[in-house]
Amino acid sequence: MSIAFPPMKRPLVAILRGVKPEETSDIISALIEAGLTAIEIPLNSPEPFRSIEIAAKRAPADVLIGAGTVLSVVDVDRLHDAGGRLMVSPNVDADVLARARDHAMVTMPGVFSPTEALLAARAGASSLKFFPASVLGASGITAIRAVLPPDVMIAAVGGVSEQNFAEYVKAGIRAFGLGSSLYKPGITAADVAVRAKVTIEAYDRALQAAS
Questions:
Q1: Residues 7-27: tens digit of each pLDDT
Q2: Residue 171: which domain range?
Q3: Residue 211: what pLDDT?
Q4: Where residue 39 sits, what CATH number does that domain have?
């Protein structure tokens, strides 16, 4: 049985690829204060599990903290030990998804084709990360979604930002993973706060326009 993606006012996942432990707390605070409630620290960042532990201790219970680029069951176990509750992977690995489910984690495996999407749904994924969304586009994701179970949560990741929310939202896509538009190595927590504010305002406008 899959772990459902929790209801969120804005199902936006902030991706902090390259974040360092010493800057994690301030950046996490900036994102949470801006209104973001799901944050992913990819495992190809410096000392990622230390950053995840810092983030998990800083975040309130209603904020999902987790890891991206999770490739093995060992990574899942370490993520659990660090206090993470969100497991994001670039691929569909049934063993990784099963271990994450054992730890009651929310899961978001990466998919690109109908075959991968259906496999991930069958494996009990909480949501599907269509990546890179910039290649598929809103129309490509919509076409694949037509053959998926209607209750599967769809997220677009890769090339999505405040610049093109409207295109995806108009197609019925509401969840997104946001990387370089929110954070790049070297920028400050103050920079992140500004970017997060712009992002949320653009997302809310897109939703309002589509309603």
A1: 899 999 999 999 999 999 999
A2: 12-210
A3: 82
A4: 3.20.20.70
